[in-house]
# Entry
Amino acid sequence: MLIHGSCHCGNIAFDLTWEPDPLEIPARACDCTFCTKHGGLWTSNPAGSLTVVLQQPALVSQYSFGTATAVFHVCSRCGITPVVTSVIDDHLYAVVSVNAFTNVEPSLLRRSSACFEAEGVESRLARRKHNWIAAVRIAANGGS
# Structure
């Protein structure tokens, strides 16, 4: 399944390849203050591949907080955060917002809550390496 997503104005868009076609897509609602305030609902497929296209990179803000191990890519034009990345051992990993999906039937989403507050940095990074999308490509203006 090829999942398309974007921020509201389309400045940050992504294609997530999810093979085989999912019977359901996990949607984790993180309870950190950023995700709570922004309605963050994230998913990833460690076997998938993700291509993110930034139409106007200058209009993308990068925000980190807490452990500063994740970067929230926020569109400065419309305020939506469709992608979060984390560099671990010089490798880029990512999760995407299911709220940014443009072609997925909502009934496929299996919502659950997630609390990572008590998690240490090392275990947090190990979890991301295991669960986040590992094949990530970010392109500016549709190029490579």
About this structure: The CA atoms of residues 4 and 15 lie 5 Å apart. DSSP finds two helices and eleven strands in the chain. The two ends are 23 Å apart (CA to CA).
